């Protein structure tokens, strides 16, 4: 990650090196905070943020699920995001809004502590991971389960939830895989460490229902685009063996975009290569985020 010049913090634009938190900030100790991961793409009409409002609405929902409020409206945060991208003169970048609880008490009670909001942006190039976009990703079933729905709040993109995903991803990488596939507490396929999964079976797409999962914005985008293309999309619980007998599989997420999943536990899915339907979904996705297909203009916020 390359550092940028400036970060937006509580309405101020501050130099990157000055954007610091105090050691006794509540979120640093307990993971009680919420964040987002958003991308700004370089389009022919200038930089455009993909589904910015939906991401910022999810940030507000995540906070509400935990029990606190983001002290800025979605409109204010849309303006702040555009401001900080402009201040760094980025044509394409990653955007990381974070709402965190500051100093004011070191117990679990946080009500007296201030809620702070920061929006960091950093350069993210177009060709990062392009090899994976074509050749696909190899995953293992994680030894860790996706949080039970009454353990951590799975619909909140909460800082503390990511301890699990970091452990799962690290375990997979250390074992020589690219990614982890987590099962839910009942053993159904849940999601990757930062992405959702789709299977292709007899020409239809199948993805797990949201019950245990983050309400993914790419997942929803792919469902809309696939249905626009005339593909059937079903939301169904399935077990890991169903992945192995699928014709194709792919991961989706803001970072992963649409990445073929070509192997699970060293066993090939389909013929172990990016499949034709995965490629069609990828093409539709990239045409949309880069503003080439004009079908969903409301999904792009130009900077
Ligand atoms: N699952 C998890 C656990 C994630 O962190 C992410 C990334 N936000 C996703 C799925 C994909 O969600 P989105 O498409 O909204 O980026």
Automatic annotation (TrEMBL):
GO terms classed as biological process: isoleucine biosynthetic process; L-leucine biosynthetic process; L-valine biosynthetic process
Record keywords, A-Z: Amino-acid biosynthesis, Aminotransferase, Branched-chain amino acid biosynthesis, Pyridoxal phosphate, Transferase
State its cofactor.
pyridoxal 5'-phosphate
Catalysed reaction(s)? L-valine + 2-oxoglutarate = 3-methyl-2-oxobutanoate + L-glutamate; L-leucine + 2-oxoglutarate = 4-methyl-2-oxopentanoate + L-glutamate; L-isoleucine + 2-oxoglutarate = (S)-3-methyl-2-oxopentanoate + L-glutamate
Q: Which pathway is this protein assigned to? A: Amino-acid biosynthesis; L-valine biosynthesis; L-valine from pyruvate: step 4/4; Amino-acid biosynthesis; L-isoleucine biosynthesis; L-isoleucine from 2-oxobutanoate: step 4/4; Amino-acid biosynthesis; L-leucine biosynthesis; L-leucine from 3-methyl-2-oxobutanoate: step 4/4
Name the enzyme group at the top EC level: transferase
Q: What is its EC number?
A: 2.6.1.42
GO CC terms in record: cytosol
Record-linked Pfam families = Aminotran_4
> What SUPFAM superfamilies is this protein classified in?
D-aminoacid aminotransferase-like PLP-dependent enzymes
Annotated GO MF terms: branched-chain-amino-acid transaminase activity
Organism superkingdom: Bacteria
Summarizing the function annotation, the protein's role is: Acts on leucine, isoleucine and valine.
Tell me the protein family, please.
Belongs to the class-IV pyridoxal-phosphate-dependent aminotransferase family.
Record's NCBIfam families?
Answer: ilvE_I, PRK06606.1
Q: What is this protein called?
A: Branched-chain-amino-acid aminotransferase
Which species is the source of this protein?
A: Nitratireductor arenosus
Q: Which gene encodes it?
A: ilvE
